[in-house]
Amino acid sequence: QVQLQESGPGLVKPSQTLSLTCTVSGGSISSGSYYWSWIRQPAGKGLEWIGRIYTSGSTNYNPSLKSRVTISVDTSKNQFSLKLSSVTAADTAVYYCARARYNWNDVCFDYWGQGTLVTVSS
Amino acid sequence: SSELTQDPAVSVALGQTVRITCQGDSLRSYYASWYQQKPGQAPVLVIYGKNNRPSGIPDRFSGSSSGNTASLTITGAQAEDEADYYCNSRDSSGNHAVFGGGTQLTVL
Fold first, then answer.
1. pLDDT band at B92 (very low <50, low <70, confident <90, very high)
2. Which segments of chain B are extended strands (E)?
3. Which chain B residues are within 8 Å of A110, Cβ to Cβ?
4. Nearest C-alpha of chain A: how many angstroms from B71?
5. Which of A37, A16, A23, A35 is CA-nearest to residue A84?
6. Nearest Cα to B35, choosing from B16, B53, B9, B23?
7. What is the 8-class DSSP label of residue B4?
């Protein structure tokens, strides 16, 4: 059973960089044709896809966040990471990491971390 | 703004059937996936592809699609089905994922 766990600071100051890591257990991050993704959810609001990475290092980002987002992968540690720069209060949210399966005609996120709350405040 | 549109709230009487819809241009090319989210919990995948349920999801959950609209149907809604439901698909480029704004389901 694949499990994902987010980790990182719960409080980030405005204008600084938010950094989170997702540790994958129960399977190798390199096995299978999966994309590893970040998704966030502000309190009381909907889900927002941030971006994805393949184990080759290939990435795609939400166009609305692309200029501030970097997702990377460390296959030796079975981890992938998110960096979001120049944060503001609008970036306060629960951040989820998830495994994505892309088929030719759909995408689904079949495993999710429990989520971690990141608050942007001075 | 989301490229997938959902009704903000829907209600259903206990034991009755409810359909939750999701509209978007990308749904003409891609199937939607559906997620159930209860307060304080991570989303759970309930439907993916044409109409597939992950292991452990009750068969009262089903999915369908027509034109630019995808639907999640719960046949015989139970009290434990009360939750927020989100649809998800690829965007028109195919390289990105998008989510609908979510539908809050109340079971009366």
1. confident
2. 5-6, 9-12, 18-23, 33-37, 44-47, 61-66, 69-74, 83-90, 97-99, 103-107
3. 45, 48, 54
4. 15
5. A16
6. B53
7. B
Residues in B closer than 8 angstroms to A63, CB to CB, are 96
Indicate yes or no: CB of A105 within 8 angstroms of CB of B32: no
| pLDDT of B2 above 60 | no
Contacts of B83 in chain A (CB under 8 A): none
Q: At A70, which helix (H) or strand (E)?
A: strand A69-74
Interface of A with B (CB under 8 A): 37, 39, 46-49, 52, 60-63, 96, 100-103, 105-110, 112-115
Per-residue pLDDT, B14: 97
Output the pLDDT for position A17: 98
Residues in A touching B96 (Cβ below 8 Å): 49, 60-63
pLDDT in tens, A55-77: 889 999 999 999 999 999 999 99
Chain B interface, best mutation among A36, A50, A54, A107, by max B CB count within 10 A: A107
pLDDT tens string B12-38: 999 999 999 999 999 999 999 999 999
